[in-house]
Design brief:
The protein is an alpha+beta fold. It contains six helices and six strands; from the N terminus they run αααββαββαββα. The protein has a four-stranded antiparallel sheet. It has a two-stranded antiparallel ribbon with strand order 1-2.
């Protein structure tokens, strides 16, 4: 239940401007979760949400900026998330699969991202799993279909792909 609530809170603050705990309580209730203000207050603390200024001078809840590389705070937060939500970790090649309790993958992925681990290219979170993509020690140019897709996407983003 807590993992599902945390996941929903993260989704809500990403999609809506939520300025107060009362607004967050109302949004959670609108999604079928009957919570108290005290519960939401604890969730805000556990998720380490921050109030950030909006363009019009108001304040809203958001995930805090990523802490610096090797931050002790980020490591503690990641450890708590792994203790509470992670079921298993497996790998193949440069891909790691972190299995989580249902609804908690986004929280775990955010914690992994906040660690700023060298070699991690990025994370992709589903409902109950996080895909962690790492760089190989030797960076080789893409080939075959990967090369074609990479060049197309880089071109669409206005980026010049590295010479191959």
């Amino acid at each position: 239940m807590k993992a599902r609530r945390h996941q929903l809170i993260l989704t809500l603050i990403a999609e809506q401007v939520i300025e107060t705990q009362d607004e967050l309580v109302a949004a959670l209730r609108a999604h079928g979760l009957h919570v108290t203000q005290a519960t939401v207050s604890r969730d805000i603390k556990e998720l380490r949400l921050a109030k950030v200024a909006t363009a019009d001078g108001r304040y809203r809840y958001a995930l805090p900026a990523a802490p610096p590389h090797g931050s002790h705070d980020a490591l503690e937060r990641a450890q708590r998330a792994f203790d509470e939500y992670v079921i298993s970790v497996d790998y193949v090649g440069n891909l790691l699969m972190v299995k989580t309790l249902p609804g908690s993958a986004m929280v775990v992925a955010a914690c992994i991202d906040a660690l700023n681990l060298e070699g991690v290219l990025g994370t992709v979170a589903g409902d109950d799993s996080v895909l962690v993509v790492t760089r190989e020690a030797e960076r080789r140019p893409p080939t075959g279909p990967t090369k074609t897709v990479y060049e197309k996407l880089a071109g669409m983003a206005g980026l010049r792909p590295p010479s191959t």
